[in-house]
Structures are given as C-alpha cells and as structure tokens.
Amino acid sequence: MKNGFRCKCPITSALDILGDKWSLVIIKQMLFEGKTTFKDFVESTEAIATNILTSRLKMLEEFDIIEKHKLPTNKKTNLYLLTDKGLALTPVLIEMTLWSKYHVQEFNPDLNLDEKLDYVEKNKAQAFKNIIANYNEYKQSFF
C-alpha cells in the first residue's frame, strides 16, 4: 500500500490510509478506551471481524501509526500501542467527535458524548496535550 496511493492529493492520500471503515475506530479504541490487544479489539462493541482487524493492524503498523510489542507479562500476546504519528491524529478524532455532536446527534440521539467534551471544545490545545500526555503515561506502564 505504501506505493499504492491513488493520487498526489494530501486528503486523498490520508484517506488511502485512514479512510476505511475500521482504521480510525481502532485508533479511537486505543487512544480513548485503552485497548491494546487483539482480544480487546475483538471484544469491543463495534464487532470488527478478526480477518479485517488483522489486516488493519498490519496496515497501521506498516505506516508507523501503531507499534507492536510482546506483552511483558505474556510473551504470546501482542501489545498494540500508538506511535507519535498515531497520537498526532488526536485533534482529528476530537474534531470528528465535535462534528458528530453538532451534526449527527439529531440522527443518533443516543450518541455517547463524554462530559469532558465541553472542556475539550473550549480548551482544545491544552486538551490535546493532556490526552497525548495521558496516553504516553499509560503506554509507559507496560514497560
């Protein structure tokens, strides 16, 4: 896929990596829900098929958005963690959440909108830094 981009457009090229149904869901689960193992992703409410999950994890790893390690307490289990490149998607995910709040909620009134979203919306730059710092602290807890 690295050389299989459709065109030179930056948006289209980003969508070639992130525009499928599952990639951003996996990144969201890692960043906001603390999911780190294949089992964590399979057991999520989004119900991603195992073959699709395997494919997306490999692709995200190829593009250095995630990294794979062995779980220190169980060498048979892979641990998936966001890289700095993956964490750089934090503002994108927050903006998508806010867009959904204002433009999708009327169609899906049961949206799960975190109570911290108002703070995040009013203090985006600081919120992005806090989310990334919290994730990095969480990531270090594995090593």
Write the layout of secondary structure elements.
Layout (H helix, E strand, L loop, with lengths): L9 H9 L4 H11 L4 H5 L7 H13 L3 E6 L2 E9 L1 H4 L2 H14 L13 H6 L1 H17 L3
Antiparallel strand pairs: 1-2
Descriptive report:
With 143 residues, this protein is mainly alpha-helical. The chain contains 8 helices and 2 strands. Helix content is 55%, strand content 10%. Strands 1-2 form a two-stranded antiparallel ribbon. A hairpin with a 2-residue loop joins β1 (66-71) and β2 (74-82). The two termini are 31 Å apart.
Question: Key features?
Answer:
globular; 10% strand; two-stranded antiparallel sheet; 8 helices; 2 strands; Arc Repressor Mutant, subunit A; 143 residues; mainly alpha
Spatial sequence of strands, sheet with the most strands: 1-2
Query: Which consecutive residue ranges, at least 5 long each, have pLDDT under 50?
Result: none
Count of DSSP strands: 2
Bin the helical content: 55-70%
CATH topology title: Arc Repressor Mutant, subunit A
Summing up helix and strand content along with how strands pair, one would put the structural category as mainly alpha
Instruction: Kindly provide the radius of gyration, computed on alpha-carbon positions and rounded to a whole number of angstroms.
Output: 16 Å
- Within CATH, the superfamily carries the name Winged helix-like DNA-binding domain superfamily/Winged helix DNA-binding domain
Largest sheet: 2 strands, antiparallel
Oligomerization? single chain
Order of helices and strands: HHHHEEHHHH
Number of helical elements? 8
Distance between the termini: 31 Å
